[in-house]
Hints:
The structure holds 2 protein chains of 2 kinds.
Chain A (H helix, E strand, L loop, with lengths): L9 H8 L4 H11 L2 H35 L5 H19 L2 H12 L10 H27 L3 H9 L4 H31 L11 H12 L3 H32 L3
Helix pairs in contact in A: 2-3, 3-6, 3-8, 3-9, 4-6, 5-6, 6-8, 7-8, 8-10
Chain B lengths: L1 E10 L2 E11 L4 E5 L6 H8 L7 E6 L2 E2 L7 H5 L2 E4 L11 H11 L5 H14 L15 H13 L5 E5 L7 H16 L3 E5 L3 H7 L2 E6 L2 E6 L1 H6 L4 H10 L3
Helix pairs in contact in B: 3-4, 3-5, 5-6
The structure holds adenosine-5'-triphosphate and magnesium ion.
The site of adenosine-5'-triphosphate (ATP) has 10 residues of chain B, from helix 1.
Amino acid sequence: MGAAARPGAALVMWEGNMNEHFFEDLKRVFLDNGGFTLMLKGVGNTVIIALSAVVIGVVLGSVCAIIKVSDGKSVPVKIAKAVVGVYITVIRGTPLMVQLLFTYFGVFATAMRGNPHKAILIAVLVFGVNSGAYVAEIIRSGILAVDAGQMEAGRSLGLSHRTTMLRIVLPQAVKNIIPALGNEFIMLIKDSSVASAITVVEMTKRAQSLVSKFYVALPIYAVLALLYLALTSLAAEGMKLIEKRMRRSDRR
Amino acid sequence: MIDVKDLHKSYGETEVLRGIDYTIEKGDRIVVVGPSGSGKSTFLRCLNLLETPSSGEIRFEGTLITDKKTNIDQVRRHMGMVFQQFNLFNNLNVMDNITFAPVKTGKYTREEARERALSLLRRVGLEDKADAYPSRLSGGQKQRIAIVRALAMDPDVMLFDEPTSALDPEMVGEVLDVMTDLADNGMTMVVVTHEMGFARHVGTNVLFMDEGKSLEAAPPEAFFENPQSPRLKTFLSKVLRH
Ligand SMILES: Nc1ncnc2c1ncn2[C@@H]1O[C@H](COP(=O)(O)OP(=O)(O)OP(=O)(O)O)[C@@H](O)[C@H]1O
Ligand SMILES: [Mg+2]
């Protein structure tokens, strides 16, 4: 007999019978009571957050990295460099959880009240802006890893810093950047669980509510862990594929 | 062609160039020698402003290039440079390495640039390497391509910073041959090198640098047979012993 049928005894039953009823509970939660579909919805939100964030992060990070490595000495460039510096310092120096709480309950406390997608939109925004700071550093160090002689050779031929950067240095930096971006994406998949702090129902939050509904923890969290593992493995395989294709087209 | 006046360069506290005056005329082949750390590379790299001088003036064909208002990219299109480490563009094949700058800067059309590249490649004996990537080339081949890449801009002067120092001994000759051929065709050259044979036989003037100064300069004959300063005598006795 399941614990859900006798809620009063649930807490007592819970610990003692957890392991013995593992497969029974698994079936009960995920197959008989629609837990599987609910969990998949959570997977959807996790993937949405991670994917959108990595796209925003790459765009934002590229712009910031280009500004940071530019050789411009004009006042606007200096200001842009300072702004980017502050952005990267603040983002990397504060916890993601705090950034989420600050944005959702602070900055957007009253805005977008009626919007049912408010939480996930803000999660995407915060994760994207957060990722941008890390991606900026990934791209910047990828560029710095390219031998300085490449830039000098370009400049010695009368090419501009910009042309040499875009056509000579960056294409070589991509090789250093892609694997690190893959890691960033995997980090985002895992870190997206923090979004539950601002009421986004992603995988972890979904699992937690299943646990409190069915009074079993182990099978649900085991499934949760496996789902994360599946997502991160998929992402890792995808990155391997991309790297392999790059190596093939890389005739050096 | 190049006029250097009271050139100084410091990195922080250390003064690497301590007031250099030198004039290079069209057709000159200046060979710069001196002990390690004497500032030879720094001097050469100041000539095309890869290093920014701390003070002093450099004129190139009448233009004051140390003036901040000078468009240095324009000036560099008339000065070729060859590096010790070759610095071929690793992401481009040989043909693109050679044609990229001339086409990009509008100096030649793609067709013109390709034709010129092929004839230059023939001149250095590497016409069969047009499609190869730098990683597939030997050091000597890389350096010959690097020379061709610089020549493809049709420069008025060529700057060489120890072009043979990173090469295996058996490849030094093929690069020196190309440089000698350039010299025979009247190219103005400034060459930093430890190859005393090249200095003696190809140079029109040899410049001895020591501790950031040009200590002595003379035609090769006088330079090697009749050195004046004790520092140069010591230097020559060391490098010519073997
Ligand atoms: N970017 C730099 N920052 C600080 N010091 C530098 C820098 N570049 C060169 N130096 C110093 O300046 C001095 C002259 O360097 P330079 O490379 O011009 O010497 P060189 O005569 O070319 O020596 P070598 O024969 O070893 O190539 C050296 O003491 C070197 O350590
Ligand atoms: Mg040097």
